[in-house]
Every structure is written in structure tokens, then in C-alpha cells.
Amino acid sequence: MRLDKFLKLSRLIKRRTVAKDVSEQGRVWINGREAKPSSTVKVGDELTVQFGQKLVTVRVELLSESTRKEDAAKMYTLLKEERNAQETDSFL
């Protein structure tokens, strides 16, 4: 499945065009490698997405061509969510 489609169906990102833009900006990695919107996502892959100052890492658990809102969270497992060190330092 294409990366931009997975990000949209899993509801990690609300719109496919936004998922495409984020990927083109180099803010998504699959298994540690920078990914393009057309990159293939497979079950077991680890995705890291940069949302502003936050990095979210998930493991792909399920691929489905369509999904309901209630079932979207079953498509991945949250592994790690961390803030950029620069942001936390600015609050101290």
C-alpha cells in the first residue's frame, strides 16, 4: 500500500494530500529511511512521522483498502511519541 494512502486510512493524518505533502518534505521515515508518498508500506514496518516538534513512531499491524473510523487505530501500534529536545529546553 502507498505510504500516503496508509497515513490517511489509519487516520494518522486526516487528508491524503496533507500526507503526500508531509512525505515530500522529508518528515516521514519507513524503517529509518526517508520515504516518498509512493513508498510501499508493509505489515511490520516502523513508520516515524514528524508533526512539528513531535516525533511519532508506529508499527504497521494491518493493511486494508478501506476502514471505518473505529477500526483505524487497529492498523498500527504506537511505539514511541517524543518531543524534540529544543522544545522542552525552551520551557525551562
From TrEMBL:
Domain RNA-binding S4: 1-63
A single GO molecular function term of this UniProt record: rRNA binding
Gene of this entry: rqcP
The protein's assembly and partners: Associates with stalled 50S ribosomal subunits. Binds to RqcH, 23S rRNA and the P-site tRNA. Does not require RqcH for association with 50S subunits.
Identification of the protein by name: RQC P-site tRNA stabilizing factor
SMART domains: S4 (SM00363)
Alphabetical UniProt keywords: Protein biosynthesis, RNA-binding, rRNA-binding, tRNA-binding
HAMAP family hit by this protein: RqcP (MF_00871)
GO biological process entries: rescue of stalled ribosome
SUPFAM superfamilies found in the cross-reference section: Alpha-L RNA-binding motif
Domain of life according to the entry: Bacteria
